[in-house]
Design goal:
Blueprint lengths: L1 H17 L10 E2 L7 E2 L7 E5 H7 L4 H5 L5 E5 L7 E5 L7 E5 L2 E2 L20 E8 L3 H4 L6 E7 L8 E9 L3 E12 L2 E12 L17 E13 L4 E15 L16 E17 L4 E18 L4 E22 L2 E18 L8 E18 L3 E12 L3 E13 L5 E12 L3 H5 L12 E13 L5 E20 L6 H5 L5 E21 L4 E14 L4 E2 L6 E10 L3 E10 L2 E2 L7 E2 L2 E11 L4 E8 L18 E8 L2
Parallel strand pairs: 6-9
Antiparallel strand pairs: 1-2, 3-8, 4-5, 6-7, 8-9, 10-11, 10-34, 11-12, 12-13, 13-14, 14-15, 15-16, 16-17, 17-18, 18-19, 19-20, 20-21, 21-22, 22-23, 23-24, 24-25, 25-26, 26-27, 26-28, 28-29, 29-32, 30-31, 32-33, 33-34
């Protein structure tokens, strides 16, 4: 069976590499690279776009499944649906990638490393996802060492009311419901959606190790996105995003403290809101945006064996920001802005020593400016700088340089960029009982560059890209174990057994190859391949759970009222531990999907996930779902 999966993957990638007949002439506009709408060809950056049509085609439920199909992005899941999942861009650690939903940061201040809880982010009325790779702190400040994932929901439309609905069920007693509506009424554009998901799931601890109990997951989510055009030059934005999830998980119970089935479960809630005022001046040449965002998270875990709740964590993030975009002339644009952020944390575990809550807050102010200029009618240059000031670590400067050069009528674009990234110490690292007792923690910093070429193939019906990247990270925060160590710091942290400190150095380098093609008017294919070396230079060892090779391919055949397709994901060998422990073999999974119109307004759709029933551990000791079947109905496009 392994041979068949490998052959299918190779065939799809070979087809992608050989096709020269796809239609990709339409200009693609992105906003994440420069914080203003720009054709993707002039940004000089590596960006992947996952569209609403892509999500619908492969019937995506969890956003991290869609992200895993983009180049250079690793998803680490501790088991099946709803279990903790983290993402890493180009080898970056989980908390070093910034995740936005409609401009709102959802990285959780209550989490130890400040990462976004990706397991709870489901596909819900998403218009598109932009994945921007490489250090991006000039425009985005902290947490953007690996890059930025920008999720944008639907809003507005040609009609006053355009509803959509989707319901499905299948393996593991799974059911899923999505309801959404969008439209334009007079001067108001709006979009709203809700989703309900439930599955009995699989055992988080690998069932092959004698763990038969399933670990279920439920998620209710809602999103809203409204813009009121007060006048031709003034508009108001109101946006909100909410999730409430419950997940069963496994642990390390006495007396042997090995990973196995337990009755533990957790509750995660997140509410994020945005209010913004947009003002256009000077005949639309100067656009101003003032916004306030509020994010509140609440996480709890429960262990019936110790009487109930054993942990809680509450986080908050308040941001006030101003952004201006000034078009000096058709060839020059300046983006500038200022931000103020205050984050807060309150957390406690019954296993902490001493048994007192951890509380703390941090404030950060930043200013930035970026100039983009078109020279000689072809070469686009972008340069930017940023200064942040933090009450804990003082000031930090970031810069960004980018260039993009199309070569005449050849369909070729040469691009390159250099960027800085930084990540401020998390509140837990600063204020928990494991904080550094002798030295203030400094931000993790990164410097990265990339060079690439994009090529539209003859006839304009395919587009290929090749990118070489390199990033070095310094001052990474790690935990120092005081076992067997005599020092003043260890004497102060004797009860805890260690503390956080700046020590780590890491490097990630490699190349990404992508190709999208329309082989015929009905047959489309896309594929990408990443080779990456991600190394902990302090320990002289590969970074854990970062595969050396990753590949994806998707082939779809579409007619007016039906479509069929297949996708393949390959994840290469990697180590589970930082000391080269726990080798995890490579694995390949394949999905099959299809849809057919049954009336003018409704479609029946279905899919087979992990069609060849691959058995693997995504993380050492954790299980992964086997072959699964799903069937549903939805409104037509």
């Amino acid at each position: 069976m392994h041979m068949y999966r490998t052959v299918i993957l190779a065939a799809l990638l070979a087809a992608a590499s050989s096709s020269a007949f796809a239609d990709t002439d339409a200009e693609t506009v992105v906003v994440t690279a420069t914080k203003s709408p720009q054709p993707i060809e002039v940004t000089g950056s590596s960006i992947s776009i996952v569209t609403a049509a892509d999500l619908r085609n492969v019937q995506t439920i969890a956003v991290d499944d869609a992200l895993e199909t983009t180049p250079g992005l690793t998803v680490v899941r501790n088991g099946g649906p709803g279990q903790p999942a983290s993402i890493g861009l180009r080898g970056a650690l989980a908390g070093q990638t910034l995740v936005l939903i409609d401009g709102i940061r959802i990285n959780d201040p209550s989490v130890t490393d400040g990462e976004a809880l990706m397991a709870d982010v489901l596909a819900n009325a998403i218009d598109r996802i932009e994945v921007l790779r490489g250090p991006q702190s000039t425009l985005y400040g902290s947490d953007a060492i690996g890059g930025v994932v920008d999720i944008i929901t639907e809003r507005g439309g040609a009609n006053a009311f355009t509803p959509s609905a989707e319901a499905e069920g299948g393996s593991f007693d799974t059911y899923h419901l999505n309801l959404a509506a969008r439209g334009t009424v007079d001067r108001v554009d709006y979009g709203a959606a809700m989703n309900l998901f439930h599955t009995n799931g699989i055992s988080a601890a690998d069932a092959r190790d004698g763990n038969p109990e399933t670990d279920g997951y439920g998620n209710f989510g809602a999103a809203g996105n409204v813009r009121w055009h007060v006048s031709d030059s003034v508009s108001l934005d109101l946006r909100s995003y909410y999730t409430d999830a419950r997940v069963d998980f496994d642990g390390y119970p006495p007396p042997n403290y090995t990973f196995q089935d337990t009755a533990q479960y957790g509750r995660n809630a997140l509410l994020a809101s945005y209010a913004g005022l947009n003002l256009a001046l000077m005949d639309g040449r100067l656009n101003n945006r003032i916004a306030v965002t509020l994010t509140h998270s609440n996480r709890k875990t429960f262990d019936p064996s110790v009487g109930g709740e054993d942990f809680f964590a509450r986080g908050s993030d308040t941001r006030v920001e101003y952004q201006g975009t000034f078009d000096l002339d058709p060839a020059n644009q300046i983006v500038f802005g200022a931000e103020h952020e205050r984050t807060g944390l309150a957390t406690e575990s019954i296993y902490d020593y001493p048994l007192v809550p951890t509380k703390g807050h941090a404030t950060r102010d930043g200013v930035y400016a970026q100039w983009q200029s078109l020279l000689f009618g072809a070469l686009t240059l972008t340069g930017g700088a940023r200064h942040d000031h933090d009450a804990e670590f003082g000031g930090h400067n970031s810069v960004k340089l980018a260039a993009a050069l199309p070569l005449g009528d050849w369909g070729t674009v040469l691009r390159g960029n250099y960027g800085d990234g930084f990540k401020a110490p998390t509140l837990y690292e600063l204020y928990s009982a494991y904080s550094n007792p002798v030295a203030a923690l400094q931000p993790e910093t990164a410097h990265g560059w990339e060079a690439g070429i994009d090529q539209s193939l003859p006839g304009g019906r395919a587009r290929a890209s090749l990118t070489w990247f390199d990033r070095r990270t310094s001052e990474e925060i790690d935990f120092f174990s005081c076992y067997g160590v005599v020092s003043a710091a260890c004497a102060a942290r004797a009860a805890q057994g260690g503390y956080y400190y700046n020590v780590g150095r890491a490097r990630a380098q490699g190349f990404e190859a992508t190709l999208s093609a329309t082989l015929t008017d009905a047959l489309t294919l896309s594929g990408n391949y990443t080779i990456m070396s991600a190394t902990d230079e302090t320990a002289n060892a590969p970074l854990p759970r970062r595969p050396h090779a990753m590949a994806n391919a998707d082939l779809t055949y579409r007619q007016d009222d039906w479509s069929v397709g297949a996708s393949v994901l390959y994840v290469g060998r990697r180590f589970d531990g930082a000391d080269r422990s726990g080798p995890l073999p490579s694995h390949t999974t394949a999905n099959l999907y299809a849809s057919i119109a049954v009336t003018d307004g409704w479609q029946v759709f279905g899919r087979i996930e992990n069609a060849f029933d691959a058995r693997y551990e995504p993380v050492l000791g954790y299980g992964a779902p086997g072959r699964a079947f799903y069937l549903g109905v939805r409104t037509a496009e």
